[in-house]
Amino acid sequence: MTLDYKGTSVFYTDQGQGTPIVLLHGFLENSTMWRYILPELIKTNRVITIDLLGHGQTGCLGYIHSMEVMAKTVHAVLNSLHIDKSIFIGHSMGGYVALAFAEQFPHKVLKLCLANSTCKEDSSERKKNRDRAILAVKKNYTIFVRLAVANLFTVENQSILEKEITFIKGEALKTPLQGIIAALEGMKIRLDQTAFFKKANFPKLMIIGRKDSVIEYKNQINEAIETNSTYVVFPDGHMSHIENKSLFLNKIMHFIE
């Protein structure tokens, strides 16, 4: 299904019945990332997946997709479906968007799970890395995307999950250049939301990868403690929903109950 939002087509799916769950994918991902847990979730809940701006089947809305703009797009989809309150699960960049949504519309959030994500803003070094990434993707789009996806997995899993990674690369290569750059620019300028997340009175869960190459796991544990969030540490990398599939599903099912 699609929604016209400010002249841009936004793709989403809406399945199942019960308390709504909103699934928000990460950078270079799209709604297909939820294909393993979706069949289980719709047995008990109404589940909405959304392709964020510039990803999947959703178009771009300018040259900088801030997390707040993406959150407003999510809000527009939920408004069109007459959904008031939801459980949010966001992976990586999807977590940033979920946080931005929760800060703008706190009364619409029942629970929030940050999966391999953080409420911290980019460090100065991370911002420089975003700029380097923009230059790299402009120079060679295909190489950038393939390397970016592979590096999200542990070295061991890059061979074990070769078939899965090939599929994810294929989906990532559908992301237009403008969408990639707009997301990188948006993530770079996002604000630190630690204070907000700490004060938030809805249930909070952080899923952490011990070998996450994007977010250092010890910092994540400290962040969970600082924000009074429940947390779980999985043994592998940034793609917990793939690398630790059964653990991920089990923890999510417990969280939504």
UniProtKB/TrEMBL annotation:
Name a GO molecular-function annotation: hydrolase activity
For this protein, the record's SUPFAM superfamilies field holds: alpha/beta-Hydrolases (SSF53474)
| Residue ranges of domain AB hydrolase-1 in the record | 20-244
Name any one Pfam family assigned in the record: Abhydrolase_1
Alphabetically sorted, this entry's keywords are: Hydrolase
Supply the InterPro entries for this chain.
AB_hydrolase_1 (IPR000073), AB_hydrolase_fold (IPR029058), AB_hydrolase_sf (IPR050266)
Database matches in PANTHER family? MONOACYLGLYCEROL LIPASE (PTHR43798)
The protein's name is Alpha/beta hydrolase
> From which source organism is this entry?
Bizionia argentinensis JUB59
- Upper taxonomic lineage: Bacteria, Pseudomonadati, Bacteroidota, Flavobacteriia, Flavobacteriales
